[in-house]
Structure prediction request, 1002 residues.
Amino acid sequence: MAFVKDMLRMWAHSWKRFISIAMITLLGVAVLTGIYAGCRDAFRSTDRFFDAQGLHDVQVLSTAGLSNGDIAALRKVNGVAKVQAERSQEVTFDLDGRKSATMQEIGTNGIDQPYLQEGRMPKKAGEIAVTRKFIRDSGKHIGSRLTVTPESASSDTSDTSDTNGADGTNETNGTDEAPSFPTKLTIVGVVLDPQNLSNPDGYSAMTSFRSTATTDYTFFAPSDGVTGTLCTSATLLVKGAAAESTFDESYENTVKQVTDRIDGTVKTDRQKARRQELLDAGNRKIADARAEADKKFADAQSQIDANRQQFNQQVDQIVSMQAGAAAANAGAAAAAGAPNAAAAAGTNAPNPQLDETTRETMRETIIAASPELTQAKQQLDQAQSQLNEQKASTEQTLKTKENELKTSIPQVRWYVQDRQSLGGFSALKSDLDSIQSLGNAFPIVFLLVAVMMSLTAMARMVEEDRSLIGTYVGLGYGRLAVASRYLLFALLACLIGGGLGLIAGFLGIPAFLLVVLQGMYVMPGLRLEYDWLYGSLGIALFVVGVLAATIYACVQEMRQTPAALMRPKAPRAGSRILLERIRPVWNRIGFLGKVTARNIFRFKSRLIMTVGGVAGCTALIVCGLAINDTVADLGIKQYRDIYQYDLMVVSDDSDASAMRTKVASDGRVTSSLDVRIESGDLTVAGSGDGDSGKAGSSGSESIQLVAVPEKHLSDLGEMVTLQPVSSGMLGTSGVGKTGSLKLDDDGVIVAQSAASALGVKAGSKVRLTNGDGVQATAKVGAVNRNLIGSDVYVSETYYAKLFDSKDAKNTKNSKSSEDSEALTWNAVLAKLSGSDASQTDYAESLEEDSSVMKAVSCAHMADSFKFDLMGAVVALIVALAGGLALVVLFTLANTNVSERVREMATLKVLGFFDREVHHYVNREMMILTVMGVILGLPLGRLVGGMLTMALNMPSLYFEVEVKPLSYVIAAVATMTFALLVQLFVNPVLDRIDPISSLKSVE
Prediction:
């Protein structure tokens, strides 16, 4: 019992060490669990939301639309739980200029269900639900009416139908028709699209640089009023996928099994079957056209034959009359010569019979003699001739269509995508993954510092009780029992600090992160959750580290015999330091300066602990500020340094000429370059089939494909800074000379942001998907310095080589072979005159023009670019690093004083005033702190330089930069903490009693 009481008294006497270890553990556990818990809560809430709304696991798109046969084939795939046929149509409407929207049918099979936020779901034809983004931009409300106009190529299927139909109609076969939605609409509800959780009322600028939406808005409509049986896509739910977290690898593996099955026989068979359906539909149209023409020709021939028969009867009647009259005249003449014989002959003679030749001669004579009959015969002959010509022409046309049918219908292509292809999903996942990667990296530094500080504190604690330990061992107590005094002390400090760290880690930090996240994404049902396993392991990690340091300190002391432990520890032998050997310097140092130098360099363990601890804390602060500086300069570097143009204007292909004329006529452009811009996809080419069609697989990146006219390849360098980059060590990169990179016809230039995310370098093979959904394998000619967005530059010739195939010509939105030779330049990169504000105003005015789809001012983008999530995490890291620095300095200063109590008492006996004692001790700590800062600044830059590997985000490359001011802030902050610690240490020095401190140990 006395042993326990003594242990408790010892613990109470060492309360400062207890607090130090507890605080370090608190900070470490908070960092380890806090960022993880915040990301985990966001992951779980969105996963529950996706499951509740039935967000599709797989989406199947086709260049020819999907028929009922395609849907039936997908239902038979092993592992598919549900299949939902999707119908959609692109429309336009007027909202401060022309805007586009996708009319999306609300599925009836529970997949991709919009989340109702306000009002009610549409049920009748003409009713729609809109997103909050549309409500904010339009100023409309529930009950407002809207009129939309279907685009000429309103959907993928209608585009394909126009190409494939034998007679140019919008039907691909006898029954399938492209979807059509009502155009008079009434808003009845506000919903959240599960495919895009971006918060329109939050930090909208954050996600603008990587938006992949092809239309401005999405309108959700019920099935009532929607016509057309052809589907634009099919969405699938996979068996067992809902039981997995959508952000885990297990989910990806479950979905991949199904996509692989679809990519196998199902995809190939249905592509062939669908094309055969289109061929059969074309042949049926031709056969129907031939049958209808034959029927019309037969009716016309019957009419002509009837008229000719009537004409012939009239002529034959005249011939018969003339023949009868001639026979009667001949009989009268014969009767005059032989009355009796003639009478007998006349009584028995029949009507005169004419041979065919004579009759035909008479017909011709009669027709020739009658103008009316001549005209009638000519009309009949002309009608017959025209009919024969029409029959020959129609037959030739039908034969031509039969011959052209196979070449005019392309090979059908399926594209099987998973959730990674959804821009909103991939943006959320990449944001959380990147923040979580920081949460995994920084706790390592906290753990190392915690172990170092615990070793320092516990070693001093054990050393102070050296004689007591010897006494207990001499009295028969086991070394384990004696060591348990210190092990339990460290364990209790770790558990209390860890428990408080769990509260901060699972409540405080996640609450802070989720507030920031909710400013960027809408996450219904978000709640804070505790992870028992991770929390326990987090505490256990620090407990093991601190206990290991404590065990080491105990073992070091308890190796000696009880008699040796009960005697005072011999002072360290005197020795010279290196500085003493440099006589010109040493001789000019004062007495107290020499004492300070000896104290610093003779006690190497204290030197290493202090300098290492301060350097680690300083490095953390520099690293956090490095992230802030890097993110702050991203917009300026991209939109002012890399992009040399001031304005990018994009239009529809049909409005491209009008758009270029508009921009040229305004007189604001000093130089320009016409290009073609398409939204596409870049995938790392695997060893398998290059036409796998899995745009949403891992290793895929949404890109902006920029085709440059062949005659103006050299002008690209005037609009965009072309600098080749190469991969370096630890995720760093080397940047080549400006202007040393040229676009040619041998490969594409890939943006550094995309190349870094996919591991692509010069010479790699990648699979490109253009705006028409056509895929091709391309060679990477070079990687260009690029920080925001994922641009891929390709020459006009190489573009044609990649995509100008028979399939490409006939895919969605394809052109004829004549048109495909000359691309439509639907975008202009321009340099403008005037200030940044005037350039921004000009871009906004252009967007109001009907021929302009999008106008982007680089000046506006540079000024408005923000990444608030990263800024919040940086603030959190810097605050925790500052707290760690304060605790470390306090622990070291407290340990330093406790080690040198007799020395301080001696100084007081020698006549040092309190202020001089303060200066004597604090000068050493300040010098050690300065040394730690000097070491920590470059260490922080080195660690910050490796952030590119940790922050591997789509459409972003972190070109790490640390501003001089950040180094100053880190140094000043650390020195300020050191000065603040002195305020706590000075009273301790003042309370040292020389008499009691200098007593000999009995």
In short: The longest helix spans residues 249-337. The chain has a mean pLDDT of 80. The radius of gyration is 45 Å.
